[in-house]
Amino acid sequence: MDRLKVVEVFEGLSFPGNLQTQETLHAAVNFQFQDTDVLLVTFPKSGTTWMQQILSLIFNKENPQSTQSLPTWHRVPWIEQMHLLKYLTDMKASKVRLLTTHFHARLLIHNLKNTKTRVVYVARNPKDVLVSYYHFHNLAKFMPEFDSFEDFFDQFLEGKVHYGSWFDHIKGWLSVQQELNFFLLTYEELSQEPCQTIQNLANFLGEHLEPKDLQNILHYCSFSFMSQNDLLNYTLVPPEIFDHSVGKFMRKGEIEDWKEHFSPEQNTRFNHVYQREMGDLTVKFPWS
Ligand code: A3P
Prior knowledge:
The chain is an alpha/beta fold. The strands form two sheets. The chain has a four-stranded parallel beta sheet with strand order 4-3-5-6, with helices on both faces. Strands 1-2 form a two-stranded antiparallel ribbon. The protein has one domain: P-loop containing nucleotide triphosphate hydrolases (Rossmann fold, 3-Layer(aba) Sandwich). It is globular. The mean pLDDT is about 95. A hairpin with a 2-residue loop joins strand 1 and strand 2 (about 15). It has helices spanning about 20-30, 50-60, 70-75, 85-90, 105-110, 125-140, 150-155, 165-175, 185-190, 195-205, 210-220, 225, 265-280; strands at about 5-10, 15, 40, 100, 120-125, 180-185. It starts with 6 loop residues before the first strand and ends in a 10-residue tail after the last helix. The site of adenosine-3'-5'-diphosphate (A3P) has 20 residues, from helix 2, helix 6 and helix 12. Adenosine-3'-5'-diphosphate (A3P) binds near residues 42, 48 and 226.
């Protein structure tokens, strides 16, 4: 709790100090990946918790209820955060370690590129990421305070928020995908075509799913199920850390909520920056 307002600056990026220390950030850069690991990579608010639950379900398909015995952050921990070692110890019996990171590719590529670690990158429309992240800043007392949505909007576009620039994050990971065992999917595909997207993901992971497994996964990862389950919806986080009176972690779970928040001018500005940053990419996203 004493680190609630601490900001850790590391490799040019800022991180909330109640989750990371210089020591844990250094340790993450030197993390020894194993060929059997699965690493979930996201920019914050891109559907990390959702995918942590899906990965957990895919690898525990015989017993999907078991995914309710521990919070997602314990079952699929962040390699850069505190308590990783405890969670890894608890994972010792599992054949596959499910891990998460918000790190940019440049911090991990040297340790990842010579492994067969399966890297799953979840991308989300950055306009919706911005909106979700803004609300998260109101909820989470360890995130910086912003005067207004406009203020946050500017900082996000300039990449001055915690974990850096959304544009740098996605471009960095896409630029090294050929060197990795890499699978890209989007929050939007998961929303709109969940069966096919989860099946494609399972194929990439080498996991066979029977129709009943897929039905179970769809049920246990649905927004309605997750938002009502205390181990999945972050309501167990104490009020000193999450001010539950101002909002929910499982907020809306929708696509294109940005349309409720952006002014026409902000949308034009965002599109301009997006085109400048992403215009050269050949990959087509559902939102572009
Ligand atoms: P919103 O704030 O737009 O509702 P992360 O886990 O990366 O922090 O992302 C959180 C976002 O994912 C929140 O978005 C949250 O509601 C959404 N989310 C979490 N679980 C989900 C689910 N099962 N289905 C759809 N969206 C989900």
